[in-house]
Design brief:
The protein is an alpha/beta fold. It folds into two domains: about 170 residues, Aspartate Aminotransferase, domain 1 (Alpha-Beta Complex); about 250 residues, Aspartate Aminotransferase, domain 2. It contains 16 helices and 14 strands. The chain has a five-stranded mixed beta sheet, sandwiched between helices. Strands 9-12-11 form a three-stranded antiparallel beta sheet. Helix 4 packs parallel to helix 5 and helix 14 packs across helix 16. The protein binds ligand F0G.
Length: about 450
């Protein structure tokens, strides 16, 4: 059959509170045109993030009831450790309350002032943790990864030549090489297994450990199966194991590809580094068998990891974004192509050419999507990246809007509705106006800035 159905039925639902356009205009103005300040209840379709917003399965809720809340040695920890170990093969698995806590642990231990850490593209929190340690976060994506409308099967790949050259020149100040799968900041684009192996090999040749930010590892493995030569007949679990087999460790947000609402981990093979990480963990997160999580959270993650590698789920998951992306593309809405694993990305600078980058076309589109259809997305552009540390401002490389899909939450009619809202906006896009910032904090301004419409 051609129709890919949601591979689940729904037993428990959350009602959506319907709102009118007039109400939404009022609520957005009251929130000073900052979508982060809206009450979630005032949003019809919430695509702000795919992080921690997954619908858990009946099996996960069941597992939650069996959570062992012992301070030390809880059986929920051993279940979690076995589930992560089975998929990744790492020797030491250290739970944390979310992904950025794992990054914080790793980089406070390995990064020092003057160091540099290359990656395909660091996610913001990874970059933040590297910079907080006084080191430099270096992005080395392949050139294709920087062109929104260009089709390429593995746009998330790292530029292997650039990595090798970087390590030849800066090897002595590089404590590790990183790889983000999928490449969130680059549009949720996958990385090929060949590229992961290539990067690991280069790191090894230069004597550097290789770490994977594995937040969306299952989506990445699905793309490997779909698009990479030699992977088509292999099981997802085998591809996942091969992915991590070449790494020395990983950071993970279980809020993504573990179907959990909270959680993460740091995994390592190096015994001494793992011991240092556990010591630090006790100071900042908790005892090494719970790491800032409740036993029930560890249960939800262990069960979620069984479910995330299901091929029927992954087929539906990746198809949802491809379906929306293809329909927007056919309608002439400029989108990042091909569709990423967890989100649809719209090139707002191309969609709204009458709004200059410093009048925030991405943010203007995100506001219009909310007013028109109650859809909450997120600007990834000049509002997020345009302010320099000295307070000056410059356009970001791109002005995108990300519509991130929570896992197992929305259905095809929600997808059709999103497309319809774009069809409506397309007819009135010339009337969409830019914005100016009237108040902003010194950093991470997109979360709390106040705007006015021009
Ligand atoms: N790495 C990647 C690639 C991520 O996408 C995220 C989170 C993190 C690390 C940090 O994990 O949130 O558990 O601390 N991304 C979310 C997003 C917030 O909306 O893309 P965390």
């Amino acid at each position: 059959m051609k129709t890919i159905i949601e591979p689940f039925r729904i037993k428990s639902v959350e009602p959506i509170r319907m709102t009118s356009r007039a109400e939404r205009e009022e609520m957005l103005a009251a929130a000073q045109f900052n979508l982060f300040k809206l009450h979630a209840d005032d949003v019809l379709i919430d695509l702000l993030t795919d992080s921690g917003t997954s619908a858990m399965s009946a099996a996960q809720w069941g597992a939650i009831m069996t959570g062992d809340e012992s301070y030390a040695g809880a059986k929920s920890f051993y279940k979690f450790e076995a589930a992560v170990g089975d998929l990744t093969g790492f020797r030491h698995i250290i739970p944390t309350h979310q992904g950025r806590a794992a990054e914080h642990l790793l980089f406070t231990l390995i990064a020092k002032p003057g160091h540099a850490i290359p990656s395909n593209t660091h996610f913001d929190t990874t970059r933040g943790n590297i910079e907080a340690a006084g080191a430099e976060a270096i992005d080395l994506p392949i050139p294709e990864g920087r062109q929104p409308s260009l089709e390429h099967p593995f746009k998330g790949n790292i530029d292997l030549g650039a990595l090798d050259a970087f390590l030849s020149e800066h090897g002595e100040r590089t404590p590790a090489v990183m790889m983000t799968i999928t490449n969130n900041a680059g549009g949720g684009q996958p990385v090929s297994l060949e590229n992961i192996r290539g990067a690991a090999e280069i790191a090894k040749t230069h004597g550097k450990p290789f770490y994977i930010d594995g937040c969306r590892f299952a989506e990445n493995a699905w793309f490997n199966k779909l698009r990479e030569e030699g992977q088509g007949n292999r099981g997802i679990k085998d591809i996942v194991r091969d992915t991590f087999a070449v790494a020395d460790g990983m950071t993970m947000s279980a809020k993504k590809d573990a179907f959990a609402n909270i959680g993460g981990w740091l995994a390592l093979n190096d015994d001494a580094l793992a011991e240092a990480a556990r010591t630090r963990l006790i100071q900042t997160e908790g005892f090494p068998t719970y790491g800032g999580l409740a036993g029930r959270d560890l249960e939800a993650i262990a069960q979620g990891l069984e479910e995330i590698i299901d091929e029927d789920y992954l087929r539906y998951r990746v198809r949802t974004n491809a379906y929306i992306t293809e329909r927007l593309d056919a309608m002439g809405v400029p989108v990042v192509k091909p569709a990423g694993g967890h989100a649809v990305f719209i090139d707002a600078r191309a969609f709204l050419p009458h709004i200059s980058p410093l009048e925030y076309p991405g943010h203007a589109l995100a506001c219009a999507l909310y007013e028109e259809g109650g859809i909450r997305g997120c600007e990834i552009g000049t509002v997020m990246f345009g302010r320099k540390p000295d307070g000056s401002e410059a356009p970001a490389a791109m002005d995108l809007v990300r519509l991130a899909m929570p896992r197992r939450v929305y259905t095809q009619s929600h997808a059709d509705y999103i497309v319809e809202v774009f069809a409506e906006l397309t007819t009135k896009k010339d009337d969409i106006r830019g914005l100016k910032i009237v108040r902003e904090p010194p950093m991470m301004r997109h979360f709390t800035a106040a705007f006015e419409r021009l």
